[in-house]
Design goal:
transport, alpha/beta, cytoplasm, sugar transport, Fructose Permease, phosphotransferase system
Length: about 160
């Protein structure tokens, strides 16, 4: 069962390991990222950053959909990490159980503008955000579990 789908361009790091994993009771972290799935060095570094008591899987977006759709994954408590609005939207489109997405951190890049201290979005991201909201998916901004949940529509 997906406990949390989080957009964080850093993927696995201390905040995820020390606060989010225990807060949602995750026993498995799934990094859904096409580039990371092919990068052995990145996989190794993320494995070092994960909590000792959690399993780490690094999969492509397509393989993540297959894994999360498998009945054997249903009893697992899973924290899914993506690094972009595009990847989160792809998972939400393919997996009807995705009803909420946490925006944790998206650093600035060319063509992006800040909507909060830690979230920068492009016009393409804004289009996807509006589509996700129209489908009734909750989009909330929160860097750590103890932060107040802020609906993303209040920041647009």
């Amino acid at each position: 069962m997906i406990k949390l789908l989080r957009i964080d361009d850093r993927l696995v790091h201390g905040q995820v390991a020390l606060t989010w994993t225990p807060a949602v009771g995750a026993e498995c972290l799934v990094v859904a990222n096409d580039k990371a799935a092919k990068d052995d060095f990145l996989k190794m570094t993320m494995n070092l950053a994960k909590p000792a008591n959690a399993k780490l899987l690094v999969k492509s977006i397509a393989d993540t959909v297959t894994f999360l759709s498998d009945e054997r994954a249903k009893p697992m408590k899973i924290l899914v990490l993506v690094n972009s609005v595009q990847d989160a939207a792809a998972l939400a489109q393919a997996l009807p159980e995705v009803r909420s997405i946490n925006f944790g951190g998206i650093r600035g890049k060319e063509g992006a503008r800040p909507i909060s201290k830690a979230i920068n979005v492009t016009d393409a991201d804004m289009t996807l955000i509006r589509e996700l909201l129209a489908k009734g998916i909750e989009l909330e901004v929160r860097q750590v579990p103890t932060d107040e949940q802020r609906p993303i529509e209040t920041l647009l």
